[in-house]
């Protein structure tokens, strides 16, 4: 199953996202990625901090890069460049630690950015729940699906695959993907509800009045506006507040 985001505008160039995508591309040229793979039964060392920067093949890298390009740029736009950089590594380390906890005696090495991608998707789920997306199930394509529905189905699929894994001898990273996704949701919810984003001057959507309208921070629908204050989007039912500093979601 694949989820593709419909165009979601951003206010600043996602420099960190682009650099990290290029960095993971460069790691494909390494002769032996086994030295950087994370193996629970071995000493952690550098692999705990670096295994999620590597991918086993160009196809895997392409899949993760597409997800990062579609979703990470908007999350970076929300939280800011520096905080996004630390979140990227936080989700990667969390995915590795989850793999360690669930497969403590495993000698199967793992690499890949999927755990990071899952954490970013969890944050996107909270920040932009009503952005339209396209879901692809092999030959079935479903369009114009709100992202909170498509990502809910996606995480349910990952959870199901983990439950299937429990009854087999195959060791995978599905548990890490579920944990990082839920962690991303929690982090994003805390940032929104406690207004940490505003305190850190990283606004959810830095836009200004244009033609006496303000854009909804969730679906970018233009809403007539003559002054600052509270707004309600009739298209996606999002409530938000717009002032001179930008926009923020309301719980």
Automatic annotation (TrEMBL):
Gene3D superfamilies: Rhomboid-like. Residues 48-193 form the Peptidase S54 rhomboid domain. The keyword Lyase does not apply. GO terms for molecular function: serine-type endopeptidase activity. Pfam families: Rhomboid. It is a multi-pass membrane protein. One of its GO terms (cellular component) is membrane. The chain crosses the membrane at residues 12-30, 50-70, 82-101, 107-128, 140-162, 174-192. Its EC number is 3.4.21.-. It is an enzyme of class 3 (hydrolase). Keywords: Hydrolase, Membrane, Transmembrane, Transmembrane helix. It is found in: Membrane. It comes from the Bacteria. InterPro entries: Peptidase_S54_rhomboid_dom (IPR022764), Rhomboid-like_sf (IPR035952). This is Peptidase, S54 family. It comes from Leptospira yanagawae serovar Saopaulo str. Sao Paulo = ATCC 700523. The lineage of its organism: Bacteria, Pseudomonadati, Spirochaetota, Spirochaetia, Leptospirales.
């Amino acid at each position: 199953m694949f989820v593709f985001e419909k165009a979601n505008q951003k206010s600043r160039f996602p420099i960190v996202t682009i650099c990290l995508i290029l960095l993971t591309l460069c790691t494909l040229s390494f002769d032996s990625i086994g030295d950087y793979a994370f193996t629970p039964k071995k000493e952690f060392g550098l692999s705990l901090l670096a295994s999620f920067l590597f991918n086993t093949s160009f196809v895997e890298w392409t899949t993760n890069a597409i997800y990062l390009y579609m979703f990470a740029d908007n999350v970076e736009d929300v939280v800011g460049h520096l905080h996004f950089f630390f979140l990227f590594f936080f989700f990667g380390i969390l995915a590795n630690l989850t793999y360690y906890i669930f497969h403590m005696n495993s000698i199967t090495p793992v690499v890949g950015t999927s755990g990071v991608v899952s954490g970013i998707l969890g944050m996107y789920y909270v920040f932009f729940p009503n952005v339209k997306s396209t879901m692809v199930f092999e030959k079935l394509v479903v369009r114009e699906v709100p992202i909170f529905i498509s990502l809910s189905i996606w995480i349910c699929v990952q959870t199901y695959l983990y439950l299937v894994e429990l009854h087999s001898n195959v060791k995978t990273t599905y548990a890490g993907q579920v944990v990082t996704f839920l962690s991303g949701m929690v982090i994003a919810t805390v940032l929104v509800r406690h207004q940490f984003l505003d305190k850190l001057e990283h606004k959810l959507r830095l836009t200004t009045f244009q033609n006496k309208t303000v854009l909804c921070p969730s679906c970018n629908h233009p809403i007539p506006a003559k002054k600052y204050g509270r707004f309600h989007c009739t298209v996606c039912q999002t409530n938000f507040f717009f002032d001179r500093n930008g926009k923020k979601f309301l719980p």
